[in-house]
Specification:
446 residues, alpha+beta, 15 helices, 7-stranded mixed beta sheet, globular, binds zinc ion, Glutaredoxin
Amino acid sequence: MNCSELPNAASLPIRFCSKFAAFSRWALAPVFKQVVSRSLRVGTILCLAFLSMSLAPAQEKSAPEKPSKEKPGKQQTDEDSGVPRVGSVLLAAFEEDKQLRTLTGELVAVDPAMGQLILDADGKLTVITPNSLKRLEEVSTPLVPTPAKEMASKALKLMPPGSRSLVTDHFVVCYNTSDVYAHWNADLYEKLYKGFYRFWKEKGVELKPPRFPLVALIFESDKDYIEYASKEFAGAQNTIGYYHQSTNRLASYDLTGIQGMMPAKAQYTRSDLINHMISRPGAERTIATIVHEACHQISFNSGLQVRLGDNPRWLSEGLAMFFESPDLTSQNGWGGIGKLNKFNFQKLVANSPSRTSDSLELLVLDDKHIAESMETGYPEAWGLTFYLLKNKPKDFVKYLDGIRARPPGKLSGPKERIELFRDCFGDDIAKIDKDYIRFMQRQKLP
Ligand SMILES: [Zn+2]
């Protein structure tokens, strides 16, 4: 999916392709093998509508001096199965770009054909394919997450020279924008974080604190952003922000454009920033974009969703859109968890004459239906999520539990997807669709 297909891209003052919440599915076996065999970059961009695989670059270290007693490629951890145990900490030596590298991390999933999925101390997920693996050893020391300040130092190396960082309770923000813009973003992230946890607690879901500091890279210009993002996926020039499930990082740039409109080195306050932004026609989408991507990151780090798990696309995007609704009357421009999403509601209404009675079922059955038509798929994903969370919250939580129970590396087919949906929301999909449409018809824009 190319982000240029995003709705109203041409009509917005900024290119709207933000919600790149990349789903990296290491479980897409054929694609996985193809990508991995081509290069060792398996990805996981979970963004607004785009599924890509690119293997996150592995941690670069020199190979251990002490040679293994085992033959190359032989794993020496589990006597019964010949494969390491999920959860154990491993030291892996593998070949990348014709160089031997090592990586220490927890084993998240293993597949004889696809290899090992390993979580390192920075929170990065790396796939090591069977062909590239040279040695694998269990180590006895637990994985210690990289502290926020160290994470900031590492992330700054990904940014243009002169970039700065700020650390909040849960986020590490690296930026070369103005301090005002970066702090405004960070405050939005933290506000979303608190609201997100509160919302799910009220629904009976106890989320876990993020295990790793949540890193966000905010570039001053689209040029800097594209240069960085292009290393992670193709088509970055058509996007304005994304969350990457492999690296676990957010990336975007100054979406308000304020810096380009101010004299060089001019100082401005947050109030100037907000006023400038609100004066632009894309203000609502600018805030939605920032919140949407952060929502993906929080969702995948709080335990609500499993990174590289079997997450239906309509669900991931629907959740992000449910939380994104801007509120331009509030101090920061956002405060609207679960409010009617004006942008997507209007799309849903506009699409209704051509909507078919199997739209809901198709959305649930297979990700391709949302990927093939973002213009219709995203509004439907928001609408269905909005309807279910407002009317069937307990069933929705049960559904999330069912999705979460599926381990990374296992991708459900249409039959399993619809069965889980039926188990949670009812057998009669046609009735659910009718109820959903009736509910949406009763909604009114404020
Ligand atoms: Zn998204």
